[in-house]
């Protein structure tokens, strides 16, 4: 039986994870074609800029919750058995304020947080934090065993795993999604395309998803070490600003954030916002500077990235465009890593369904 030619468009965490899972199916011959590759730093290439950790904000009983659930299983395996992937266990301390859950708006993160989340039964050591141990100004808190992902290690690791499995990676810029079918490394037209174009799904021909919007994030990467993942449900600096501290494995430093500025395309870092980010981080996580001020933070760099948010939710669907089957896997917002395996598994299933339909025709 001849191999089925597939082109995956996009080399962020969604594209690379999908390509890796597809490569484990012997009958598929995979090319990844992308404008940006691991090692690139571009504001629209979201994956390198992520924190990244595992803190589901999906609603219970939804497809998104199932994707997050399935992803935990894989990330936990990597943390236990594959240190070279840059994924490691960390305790997460999540604090919330009652005011962040009030009204129709609420903070960007606050509305999605809960002291009784659905994932409490899958992450290890979930427990409530006693009120006597809460930071000043917070009303509730939880702690559990999570994972942190050093994106500077993890994306190249995904690339390496793909290459070992025979996946071919190449640069490609497309005006229309169907053009990707002609970039398979075999020189022959691909039978199926997987669309993992992230924010570009809003403008690439054949897709042009008008529900795609950027959610600008700004971070500060420091050399200081934190006691674990620390996050708060909101800040007094506005509903689009949040506070989180994420330590990365293997000398990757600690990510301080952040903001969630929907519709903002600005690529330049805001020094005033950077100061607020550092100030909030030091207040919420005093271990960063042993109780001292932000002048004791050792800054590696400032970062700005655009989360690929789809207002109608992550899109994992199949359709035929210009006579070629296309499976979509995009619109993950700020949750691309913690839903990566679950979403990619769902996309792989649709690939099989689409090719089965094609075989019957």
From TrEMBL:
EC numbers on record? 1.4.3.3
Binding positions (D-dopa): 244, 307, 334
User: Where do the TM regions start and end?
Assistant: 6-26
Residues that coordinate or bind FAD: 197
What Gene Ontology molecular-function terms does this entry list?
Answer: D-amino-acid oxidase activity; FAD binding
Per its UniProt record, what Pfam families does this chain match? DAO
- Show the catalytic activity: a D-alpha-amino acid + O2 + H2O = a 2-oxocarboxylate + H2O2 + NH4(+)
Keyword match Ubl conjugation: no
Reply yes or no: does the keyword Flavoprotein apply.
yes
Q: Where is the FAD dependent oxidoreductase domain?
A: 5-349
Example of a GO cellular component annotation carried by this entry? peroxisomal matrix
Cofactors, names only: FAD
Q: Which PANTHER family match?
A: D-AMINO ACID OXIDASE (PTHR11530), D-AMINO ACID OXIDASE (AFU_ORTHOLOGUE AFUA_5G11290) (PTHR11530:SF16)
Tell me which family the UniProt entry assigns to this protein: Belongs to the DAMOX/DASOX family.
Protein name per UniProt: D-amino-acid oxidase
Q: Which organism is it from?
A: Letharia columbiana
